[in-house]
Amino acid sequence: MSTPTSEYLSGLAIPTPPRRDGRPQRDPRLEQLAGSILAFEALSQGLMDYAGDAQDPRPLRPRSLYDLKKWSADYFPYARYRGAFPDTTIYLAFCSDRAKLPLDQAVPVPREDLWWLAASSDTLLVSDRLTHHYTAVWYVDEDEGRIHLLDPWPDRIFLKKGLNAAGVEARIEPVTSDAKHRRISITREEFLRVAVGLITRDTPELIEDYLAARSGGCKRFDVRLAFGLALMDAEQYALARFATVHLEAALRLAEAAGQAERAQDAAARLHVALVSAIHYQRWSKDDLAPKPFEDALRHLTARYGEDRLLAAAWLRELCSIGHAAGISRDHDAALHFLEVAVSRFPDEEEPYRLRAKVRMLIGDPDGALDDATRALALNAASIRALEARRDSWHPDDRFSRDDDQARIGGLQERRFDELDMRAAALIALRRLVDARAAAEELVAHAPTSSDGYAKLAGIEQLLGNDAAAANHLREAREREQSPRQRARLDALLASLQAPPAVAPKAEAPSASSEVHP
User: Fold this and answer.
1) Which of 113, 122, 131 is nearest to 191 (CA)?
2) Which position has the higher pLDDT, 515 or 210?
């Protein structure tokens, strides 16, 4: 491997044997990552406390297959290790079609297909209807007809004989000669009794491989719709073009069956995917790239009507297409989508935050100020509610507390963005005293960031307080991590401290020559 993180990934990895009669192997970079994850699973045996041994044991907070998929995707080091994995890497959740999970959470498949899908380092959900447990797939031995698993507590797993209601008799075998690390294995027949769901990491090629090998899924509305939703749920606009294929297929299946409600649902989801794909393709600067999606969107809206489609869109979908349109500089479309979101979901923070951004871009600081102020109020209420829930968990339930604290952290990041926009809007409105107070609130919210101090410097300069501006620039420079931005701050600081140039017969500055931070 020649990726920037090859040394990190290959430092310790367990081999991942290929399947003979199952799913094809993934991209080599993903197989390498799978081996590294398995090595961690093996090394973690005996290092983590078992919840049942606690002084006051109690059931853990339920964590759904979808929750765990999103948690895994959030911690996937894609951004940090950009280039180490395929650009279209995605987490997919599959569930037994007996489980009846919502289609936007997992792809329903026969249990036999979970066996076909299982690959090294996948997260497997097993249950005997009384006990539910997540564990890691090591590999499938098709000659022996067994699946091998790695678990932090192999000797305590409920799949052992006499510990489950499904009649499963798992084998526990040593992996190393000193028997310090152990693996679990069950037969294919036992797997089909207890397998409920699977979370895997791959690219959209897995979907094509699955539909080619298990052709029954091609003709199932729920499977095609769920695949489209899973691709959109990845929150990568680059995947929208893949999602349109499956959502169009779901729409055709519903229409052919005369299922109007299903067709309307599929059409609404397809509308979001097409709009996302159009704006993503516009970023490519290829004038012809968006055309197939624009044609499909035109035909769809002619049949179902844009108002009906937007009325059926979910909050996160409206925010997503509003954001996509804003990035492609289609500000009219962005405002339209976000105004629908604000109208339909007036007590949600995100539409106001995004609309404030668009309004700043189009030169509407009054509207941006109103939206940022409303978003800040909703943000504060959400943080208070999460803090109360975080503090209500049992002292030993650190996972629930950590989950809520992570959500609070995300809301605090949004709050920084909203405070920043509020200060920018006040500057644009020349309400400089109010802008100073807003920038001071930004500094108090994120004292280690340079942004608030840089804004304060610009405001003080506009007010004619060069000494105060210089002090704030020094504070900003101390906190700035980027060498390029530090150089920029140095240049600004030098310009403030330099003696004014003497220019003969200098004319009075026009309004357009005013200094903006």
Assistant:
1) 113
2) 210
